[in-house]
């Protein structure tokens, strides 16, 4: 019976939907996390009577036809790249992006990754790194005797060094933006890499045209809304249950048909 297979695709789709929602909820406290949203498409149709086909020699035609669908498939699990809430941390190496842009991170294999997680630290040589020790690009090296480090909204990094009246310039943090940031591929650890769908990275200084500004001692929270996710979870559960009932009903109908033939 066709309904069995159609309902099975619906159950599989809602199972994936629940997996996406559960990942959003699990990462509701992950710095810079961007929630995902499952999107679906209907599968191919079997056309028993094509709309617009002729029904007589007098040019009469079928107004709607007969088509039977075969279920649903997952089209994408797109990232929602909206701004998350900025929260004060009181740590001088924490930096949040307000607006467009990603920090650039140099991976050990030579690739460049991108992140909205600005919870940076210093390594043993004074270089600005991520929690996993990946270098921030362009490199920022803080002198060992620096007493204070400031990061402006435009990304300029300066350090107060004993014996110098003027702050010492250490460089400028840059941001990267993409034509289609939803096309970035997540590789875990709050990192993304560019793809052909995202387009090549466009690099620029914070606060310049098209780029967001930086805010020191702040971090961007995940853009996950708990109420929205719970509502989506309930809707997915109900849809799963309805598809399960279709399978039960189809099974009972098949059983009745079999008994009729045997009788």
UniProtKB/TrEMBL annotation:
All residue ranges annotated as the Flagellar hook protein FlgE/F/G-like D1 domain in the record: 96-159
Domain of life the protein comes from: Bacteria
Flagellar basal-body/hook protein C-terminal domain sequence ranges: 215-260
Domain Flagellar basal body rod protein N-terminal: 4-34
UniProt keyword annotations, A-Z: Bacterial flagellum, Cell projection, Cilium, Flagellum
Entry similarity comment: Belongs to the flagella basal body rod proteins family.
NCBIfam families in the record: FlgEFG_subfam (TIGR03506), flgG_G_neg (TIGR02488)
Name recorded for this polypeptide: Flagellar basal-body rod protein FlgG
